[in-house]
Amino acid sequence: MRPNPHARRQARTLTAVACTLALSAGGLLAATVFAGPALASSANLLSNPGFESGSLSGCTCDPGTAAVVTTPVHSGSYALAATPTSSDDAQCTQTVTVTPNTTYTLTGEFQGSYVYLGITGGNDTWTPSATSYQPLTTTYTTTANQTSLQVYVHGWYAQPTYHADDLSLVATGTVSVPTQTTTATPTLPSSPTPTPTPTPTSTPTPPPPGSGSWKHPVYYMPLDNNAQSIASVISGSGETEYNLSFVLDSGGCTPAWDGDASEPVSTDTAVLADVQAIRAAGGDVAVTFGGYNGTELGTDCGSASALAAAYQQVITKYGLTHVDFDYENGALDSNTAIRFGAIHLLEQQDPNLSVSLTIPMTTVGFPGTGTDEIKQAVADGARLDVINIMDFDTGLLSGTETAQTEAIADDAVSQLQTIYGWTAAQAWSHLGITLMNGHTDQPSELFAQSDFSGILAFAKANHPALYSFWSVNRDFQCPAGAVEPWNPGTCSGVTQNPYDYTKVITQYNG
Questions:
Q1: Which end of the chain is more exposed for a tag (fewer CB within 10 A), N or C?
Q2: Omega into 476 within 30° of 0, i.e. cis?
Q3: pLDDT over 90 percentage in the chain
Q4: Which of the 8 DSSP states describes residue 198?
Q5: Which residues does 101 contact at the CB level (< 8 Å), separation at least 6?
């Protein structure tokens, strides 16, 4: 979307599932084991690595996802089986005590589609499809002060049950630390030490997240495009779900509204007040990173960890449980390893975070750049709860606007089935449909209110994850006699009453 058309997890709050294993077949079993310091030896630090206890005692997993089975196994009598759902990737973790400045190797045997093995804050590896047990291995070197390490295993949403067996975490080397040669108080080792996180400046307490529906979040620019007060938008339209747009980079990997250095997220009070008002009305918000104009944070943040930290500033500031990533223009299909690596890190830190990826479309579904991004997300272990299609700006080639828009959504569902191996119903449950009201950026394209109503019926029949539009700032008739550009950011260019399009969107509830 355009500001102006012209211009995986750390600690989780989960029900404990007992498990003496380090991993589950549906994900690494989350067990906290406080053993003695790990030495650079061949000792396996993971508890019950072959699942030979025949039970899950000692571990914590996503509730209801993990079990010990007798077949198929890689060796011995037992293995772990875990079953992802459409909303849970069946992850388990185990935390062990380790030695600083030491390299550890994590291995295991896995069977299934999209099975991930990794170390929180480090590397992971995965297999897209293994019809029999296949080994996975990754390594990690602890920092100078690190004394614990968390390993994880998980599957992928809505994929079949997968299996894990014969897990191992062993110390395989040490990092050389200079020997002190004086009797004075020893100095710190010269090996790199993580830079402490700066103490945040005082900001208002983040508002609590909303707890209601998230089926029709409309796009709203709170500081641009002649934004109406949020109180008037809510009272005039009845809408309480909003994608607040856009957070961009104001330079040096610094989140700011519209990329404006005078509107940094760190000191914002205006948008925070809007968030509080929306939640007080029983609604909730997402923040959208990106858009067509400006510099998306992933362009300047030089690593996945730096980018994740920048995104996290915004999540923390507004107490977000929903985020939207709208990579367009030069950011589309660019720096994808950094961008989706950052999303993966966010999901590790914030397992309850709901993530949507917004993608421009063609008349035949996702462009190659769009499928590239989705496949990169899969490769990086970044969960996409919603793949939100910009079902507009394709130009009307023939037929009606409603029919072409529906055909594009059908094509997108077929493509998601191919990429993820989903059923049609699963693909629809992850699809978002976003339109543009009135005149769009394409002269041949016009969405009337009747089109929004027709596509609403289509959505109700197919049950996409959400139905939205760009944008509530435009949900007005243009002033009489005013000279407007073709598709202004502040009005629709058609005859209408205020918020007519928004009132259609709010009727969608899945």
A1: C
A2: no
A3: 67
A4: P
A5: 141, 142, 143, 144, 174, 175, 177, 189, 191
Cα distance between residue 410 and residue 396, in whole Å: 16
Q: What is the pLDDT of residue 34?
A: 31
3 state SS of 308 = helix
CB atoms within 10 A of CB 283: 21
pLDDT of residue 174: 79
Smallest Cα–Cα separation from 375: which of 391, 359, 399, 396?
359
- Torsional sign, CA 253, 339, 327, 503: negative
Predicted local distance difference test score (pLDDT) of residue 481: 87
Tell me which residue of 344, 44, 385 sits closest to 215, measured CA to CA: 385
pLDDT at residue 184 greater than cutoff 70 = no
CA angle 270, 274, 279 (to 5 degrees): 150
CB 404 within 8 A of CB 384: no
Secondary structure E strands in 155-190: 162-174
Which whole-number Å values give the CA distances from 53 to 92, 164, 210, 507, in the listed order?
17, 15, 43, 53
Q: What is the pLDDT of residues 294-345, one digit of tens each?
A: 999 999 999 999 999 999 999 999 999 999 999 999 999 999 999 999 999 9
Return the SS3 of 150.
strand
Contacts of 235 by beta carbon, 8 Å cutoff, 6+ apart? none
Give the type of residue at 234: I
Say if residues 114 and 88 touch (Cβ distance below 8 Å): no
Please, are residues 41 and 170 in contact by the beta-carbon 8 Å criterion? yes
Cα of 27 vs its chain's centroid, Å: 19
User: What is the identity of the amino acid at 348?
Assistant: Q
Residues in the chain: 510
Contact in structure between 134 and 117 (CB atoms under 8 Å): no
Residue 492 structure tokens: 């629709």
Distance CA 269, CA 298 (A): 25
Report d(CA 75, CA 404) in Å as an integer: 54
> Can you tell me the distance from the alpha carbon of 150 to that of 97, in angstroms, rounded to the nearest whole number?
9
Q: What is the pLDDT at residue 200?
A: 38
Residue whose token pair is 């938008």: 233
